[in-house]
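[job 0417] fold request received: LysR family transcriptional regulator
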Amino acid sequence: MRLLNFDLDTLRTFATGIDLGSYAKAAAQLGRSTSAVSAQLKKLEDQAGAVLFRKAGRGLALTDAGTTLLAYARRLLDINDEAALALRSASLAGEVRLGLQEDVGEALLAHVLGQFIRSHPNARIEVCVARSAELQRRVAAGQLDLAIAWDAGRGGLAGEKLATLPLHWIGPAGADPLIAAGDGPLPLVLLEAPCALRDIAADAMERAGIRWRCALSSASLSALWAASAAGLGMTIRTRIGLPSTLALLDPVAGRLPALPSICLTMHRLAGDENALSTLLAELLRQAVRELAGPVRQQLCTVQPVPECQT
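[job 0417] inference complete; emitting structure tokens
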């Protein structure tokens, strides 16, 4: 049987549309017309010999075949991009000092830094995993070249916004926090001050008129996860890095106040022209887009381009 060769440009369009939630946006980002994107998607379905999309309201959702192909598309594109980076800059050498916020650190360390080191064997990376305020301070002081941190829009160091993510109340699955608290104040587990998410949680409770207390205060995110899983109290974070022992709580069912979104931001050392840090920043942007928008067939819908009839 003759094996087919998928076109990488077409796979990139396919994956980009999912990441952006719209194939019209994908067309603009990739510099193609909407009719060209529609033709690419039709060609991809013809090559795959399967229907990749189904109607979902006014948008499109992936079928089982589409979800399977997307996983392989991401792997093929990762290998292609890694090869391109290696050939383009194999001779680059030097050091990059990178700071990562703890929520995203584990995922980015495994995915981005492994690829970067393989592509640049003469490069050295010094990684600092710390809280957002500390990372911003170190970039401003010239101690870090790059940092990925939360930005709550409260006068911190300016940076490049990579993603905006909703905050969630988090606790053990099936928990009813208000009933569990009884007549006492609602227990929360929070990072030590200063912490933007701690302030957001406190503000939300006070606006809703809900009494609360801090059941645990820690500098460690893992301590928050463990304390919340043990039932000491709720916390608030994004869904990134959420342990399987915890769940997103329904604010309506739990009679909890609504929470805002928070931005994930890249900060760079002023005047930094290091080619290695520029390349690493490219990889981080792409990885954050993938991390911020994981594809889950039951939830993910994308807006088709006008010509797309898939």
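[job 0417] notes: The CA atoms of residues 128 and 191 lie 18 Å apart. The first strand starts at residue 53 and ends at 56.
[job 0417] exit 0
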